[in-house]
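Hey, resending since the last one bounced:
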Amino acid sequence: MKVCVVGAGAIGGYVGVQLARSGVDVSLVARGPNLAAIRAHGLRLQINGAELLAHVPCTEDPSLLPPQDYVILTVKAHDVPPLANSLKPLLGPNTTLVTATNGLPYWYFYGTVPFAGTTLDSIDPGGVQWRAFGPQRAIGCVVFPAAELISPGIIRHEHGNKFPIGEPDGSMSARLRSLQELMQAAGLDAPMRDDIRDEIWLKLAGNVCFNPISALTHATIDVIASDPGTRGICAAMMEETRAVGMSLGVRMRVDTERRLSGAAAMGPHRMSMLQDLERGKPMEVEPLVGVVSELGRLTEVPTPTVDMVLALIRQRAATAAGVAAPHAAPVSQAA
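The structure tokens again:
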């Protein structure tokens, strides 16, 4: 069984080390200093007070690797469209693509769902992923663990090991069961879901607020979810996100107060958007925040707080990059 993890950052590195140590034939696609460090010293994972080392084949050129049984996408969501066509050599007739990225996956509107066939500019501009990958080969995966790439080739696992997985049509297919077996053997909790879109929205409801607010304030998640002011903003954004999701048939099994209280108890975790800002990297603004605003317009559900925070984080991202902020589409209007 051949598995390629595309992106050897915090989550991809964690998954790659765990799979490799369980005996899976793993390869990695990485770039820059991270690629150089992995080639020179292997990939290191700090977890449970120990440091695990895995020597895994790693390349920046996917065409050097053979077609895979599973390709697991763990790069930042905004990095997938530019990579899409270069990943085609990894995709054989029966290759399964596992979308372990933030936000909504490119295949979200595949199948018998509202707005079937829709592609969103915030996650798949021009439908690049839809055409390059094809929605039929996708399996959804939601990433709940927290980890950080603390230096090239070294990942620190902070907490969690749950990766819910599911077919877009909710079926318990053979390829889904096989993926679960691979992940479970590697110590990754991968419950199979017949409602993977619900899991995706559960993660998005946190990301839509905690990530941009962390980048705007430089606060950790426990502070954001505990301070009355930022907690209130998060609650409003979550409720707007919930309303958009419900208009698409999503069932939100965790209410807003419980979600906020859980975040407050997580401790001083620095959200990924803040980590990227501090390292001078592009932030996942559109896949995590812009997508809810875009879907609000599509479904005609008002998202005023999301739109306001989106305008702020777009400006913050533009300032960090030294460019003008992008022109925003008209925001949703209250009914």
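The longest strand covers residues 91-99.

Sorry for the duplicate.
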